[in-house]
């Protein structure tokens, strides 16, 4: 597989690893999303100044307001974070 194909496969596998631990297998509950962030993006959580920022991030992931994060919402979050990291690297 190419690097991009590998990255896509890793995104899918990562989402699927955490989805369904509590509820539906194709969505993340708030708790599942928080666990995913804690385990997969620990540096991001360390940069958060307080718990409210993390809760706002989790709430912001749920674009359609169904109290769950589906794969599309997850991918948008990863893309936004990737853009933010890329922008920071360019400024350095």
UniProtKB/TrEMBL annotation:
Pfam family, one: S_100
Signal peptide region: none
Keywords: Calcium, Metal-binding, Repeat
Annotated GO MF terms: calcium ion binding; calcium-dependent protein binding; transition metal ion binding
Limits of the EF-hand domain: 49-84
GO biological process annotation, one example: endothelial cell migration
SUPFAM superfamilies given in the database record: EF-hand
Gene Ontology CC terms, in alphabetical order: cytoplasm; extracellular exosome
Protein's recorded name: EF-hand domain-containing protein
